[in-house]
What does this fold into?
Amino acid sequence: MPRVTLTSANPARQTADALVVAVASSPAGPRVVGADWLPAETVEQVTGLAGALGITGAVDEVRRLPAAGALAARTVVLTGVGPLDEVAPDAETLRRAAGAALRELTGVASVAVALPAEDAEQVAAVAEGALFGAYAYTRYRSGGDAKAPAAEITVLTPRARDKSATRALARAEVLAAAVHGVRDLVNAAPNDLYPAAFADAAKAAVKDTGAKGVKVTVLDEKALAAGGYGGLLGVGQGSARPPRLVKVSYSPSRPAAKVALVGKGITFDSGGISIKPAAGMDAMKSDMAGAAAVLHTVLAAARLELPVAVTGWLCLAENMPSGTAQRPSDVLTIRGGKTVEVLNTDAEGRLVMADGLVAAVEEKPDVVLDIATLTGAQLVALGPRVSAVMGDDSTRTEVVDAAGAAGEAFWPMPLPADLRAGLKSKVADLANIGDRFGGMLTAGIFLQEFVGSTPWAHLDIAGPAFNEKAPFGYTPAGGTGVGVRTMLALIEARAIR
It folds into this structure.
């Protein structure tokens, strides 16, 4: 991850390979935002030659111009913020503009970012966006990578020496490390990241962070059988690589609250006997994004030394078809005793999550959040960039508020009581699928069966967790790291309630 520093130096005299400034769009043409220090000839170049240079100021637009000796930097990079109703862009607009610029600025050593950063909130947004954008996954690339992100990022702000700004930067670095960690796990090939390997990666991540008060416990297939974790065992029985349940707990002294996080960790989802179509199955390596987000949220909370006890449950299994795989009409006994008739083996995420939710609730947390790439119906309802949140009214609202503060898009969805009838089974307590329509909501209703009266919300990130199309803003192709920012913001809010 790049090194980030703050400076209050004159941006025009800042030495760097690239100097990033914001450009807004307007009916009269593009205009430079918050950069009165720019030489007149540079401003004239932007405005006078906008048409010829393709500069509009649109969101995600990034254009490079030679500095031509007018600035200490070698090039000027114009990053679009779109039309502005206010004097300055909001936090998410700044994040996205900084991220788009750094995502495009590969193969350069140093970047100075001169976007509006007049207070700690803006400093945080610019730093977060720049770090999110400066990401590349190169594990499987042979030889060098000419498109590596910038190694040095300087954020220009008049608040460079303020403690609030330096704290904002420190938090941004922790947050970005967590998001990068999730992306790395999601992007890993499933032949390398199977349940036991994921458990080992969790242990290594805890050790690497050096965070205090963090403990990892791993239940293998024998321990799962002894503990009655029938969902994990049923889903994992078709694979030669058995399931795991990983508990990652951060326990500060005198915690102000106790939060449990449960993440779906299907390291590859073929659909099992109810096999998926071959087209697009390669993206099913991302079906463990929820577990990855839980792991790195716990570690981020520990690194920030938040006064909240946070326990993460990573529900890890590989869903494969074989002679030992579970069959449609099999009946599983979830931890705690409820039985589930498996009518579709491709509705497996809710089975492993049921085990994790029961285990989490047994420890009596103040609130439990589960996060999962759970249903294709989420994509149908909300598309690839907006996640869904369901649960009791209070917790659902808390998640939406946290997402808004963090800059992530989560949309509140209902849990209609009438859909529960679709989960009736002729032989078991409930079935693992219901009627065709409202599938995202039915999955949430299924999970609700395993939380009792504990305050709870379910986050369905099926689309936003893995970007199968072109990069945008600070979001790369592949794993996105969605969910970490929202869950961490909720934990921080709980710390001061």
